Structures are given as C-alpha cells and as structure tokens.
Amino acid sequence: MNKIHKQCTKDEGKFNRRVRGFGALAIFAFVGIFVGAAQVRAQGPAAKAAPLTFDVASIKPSEDINVAIGAGKMPHVGMKVDNQSVDFGYYTLAGLITYAYKVKAYQVTGPDWMKSAHWDVAATLPEGANKDQIPEMMQALLADRFKLEIHHDTKDMPVLALEVGKNGVKMAVSPPDPPPANKPDDKDSTVVDTGNGQVRVKTTGTMGSGGSAQISGGPAGNVKMSVDNGMMHMESSKMTMEILSQQLSQFLQQPVIDKTDLKGSYVAAVDISIEDLQAVARAAGFAVGAGPGASANSTGVPSAGDPSGGSVYASIEKLGLKLNKEKLPVEVIVVDHLEKAPTAN
Predict the structure, then answer these.
(1) What is the 3-state secondary structure (H, E, C) of 212-269?
(2) Domain boundaries along the sequence of the chain
(3) Summary mean pLDDT of the chain
C-alpha cells in the first residue's frame, strides 16, 4: 500500500493539472463503475463459518472531493486491500452495504440520505483471515457501528433487456492481447487499487481541450476517454456483454439483463453527453451541478420509460444493440434501520 501511495503522491499533481473540475470527477465516477462491475463479478459465496469481525476499524467522514481536486491533491477514492488490511475511501453507506452483501446498487433499498454522506473506513484483518472474507466483516462492522438491520425480499421491478438490434451487431471482435510489455509505462499515470487488482489512469493533455485519459488493467481492457463538444467519448478494447449490462445498470440506475447471447469480447465505443455523465457522477455520490436539459427524474438519467431518449440509449443503438422494457422479480436488501453516524472509534 505504501508503494501505491507513493506512486499516487508522485503523480497526483500531473494528474490533476490535466483533469481539472468535472473531467476529474467523470474519470473517478467512470473508474468506479468499472471497479463496481469487477467487484460484483469477483465476489464468491458468503462464508458459512461464525461471523468474522475486523481487529481494529476506524470510520471518519470523507474529505470533500471537490476541495481536494481544487487543491491539486489526489482524492481518497476507492478501495485498497490486501490480506492484512483494507482501506475504503469516499464510500457512501449505500455503497458499503452493496459491497458487504455482494449485490448491485439497485438491489439495496433504504433512506435516500444513505447515498449522500461519504465515509473513509480503514481496518485491519484478524489473524488467519483473507481479503475474500472482507465483505462478511463489513457486514458485522455496519451492524456494530451504524446499527444496520436489514431483511431480504423479492420485488417485481422494471428491468431493461439488452438485446441485439434488428440490423445486427455493429461492434468489432476484440483483437488478441498484445505481448506483455517488459515494464509498464507509468509516466503521467495514477495507480488505482480496485481490491481485485490495479488499474492505471494515464492522461495526455487536458480533458476538454484535446486531451484524453486512458484506463488500463480493468475488466473491459484498455479504455480511452476524451471530451469534445459536450460529449464524453469512451472506447473499450475488451467489452463483454456481461460487463456492459452491469455498467448500464449503474448508468441507468435500474437492472439491465443481458439477453444478447453474444460471447467473447468486443471493441465498443460510446458517446455520452456531459449532462448524462453529471447524472452518473451524482448517482455515484460526486457533488456536481445539474447541467442544462437534465431529466426531471431523481437521478437526472433519462427515464427507462422512453428508450428513444438520452445519449446512453443512442450509443447502445450505434453498437447494434437495443434495450427493451420488461418486469421481473429481483432479489433486494431492505434497510430496516440505519444510523446516520457511527459510534465512536
């Protein structure tokens, strides 16, 4: 962790000079979407032994991410984990519950305020425990410090079925992986530990002024992001339909079910408006203002009731895919009780 911290500290000035303001927020929110997809896929079944607890855990309010970025500091965002300790940065209670119970964001229902306040959690693991047991220990921590009480239920929910469009797929199959480089090019890169491996965010120029950001090492392969004329262009080199459906679930804040029957991975490029990206960032807990023309719904994301509207839907159609409305039973976690602040460290 110290090595990662030193790398981040070394490069944070270069990183923030290139992605000021919303550009930085968009990148962190977008990395969070990829990380979230990876975590859900990577988690195994819950342990059946007696519940484990962290040896020591500290919980404190997160620093305002906008203040950190404005000061040229690397925001404390994401998760760093090994077999001895874990560090969560800028997590909402809803995000911690999602991680603890190995579910997706739309599967957690509770008070709206649990999606607003952000917390940093640093904890050490008990002897003999490993990082695969951290979700179980997080459940115990939330129950102890925030007095979390939940129950499981099944709820009929509107979902979107991701299907192949009538004119067929318009994505190219991913090319073979290139030979591994002898040494990663970390110049102007920021290393982000996702808890399931590291991703590198490398910037070129300034976002919004001809610059771009490249994310490598994530589940969707190499991802390039750039901003032009009010649109964020994102191209992934190794997009599977499973990952795409999980990402769309977070973009649209409702379940997206993969019904394409497409196997393998594809080169997928999408263009999403800054307004829609602001809505995604707000849904992820980042404090960004609403852009002009934002939707009237609670998240600012185009309503699923009108699949013809919004840049997300338009981008999906360009890939030769479509989203159809359905209603299916979905397993959910219902928050019965939750305190707004933890007991003292």
Answers:
(1) EEEEEEECCEEEEEEEECCEEEEEEEEECHHHHHHHHHHHHCCCEEECCCCCCCEEEE
(2) 2-154+333-337, 158-291+299-331
(3) 78
Instruction: Give the whole-number percent of the chain exceeding pLDDT 70.
Output: 70
CB within 8 Å of 260: residues ≥ 6 apart: 162, 163, 164, 241, 321
- Rounded CA-CA distance 200/288 in Å is 24
Count Cα atoms within 13 angstroms, Cβ side, for 82: 6
CA dihedral 202→205→207→209, nearest 10 degrees, is -160
Question: Phi and psi for 97 in degrees, rounded to 5?
Answer: -65, -45
Q: What is the pLDDT of residues 178-220, one digit of tens each?
A: 776 655 555 566 666 555 566 777 877 776 677 788 888 777 7
3-state DSSP percent of the chain in helix, strand and coil, to 5? 30, 30, 40
pTM of the full predicted structure?
A: 0.72
CA atoms within 13 A on the CB side of 118: 19
DSSP-assigned letter for residue 23: H
Contacts of 84 (CB under 8 A, 6+ apart): 124, 125
* DSSP code, position 314: H
Nearest to 162 by CA among 264, 276, 35, 247: 247
Whether the per-residue pLDDT at 113 is higher than 60: the answer is: yes
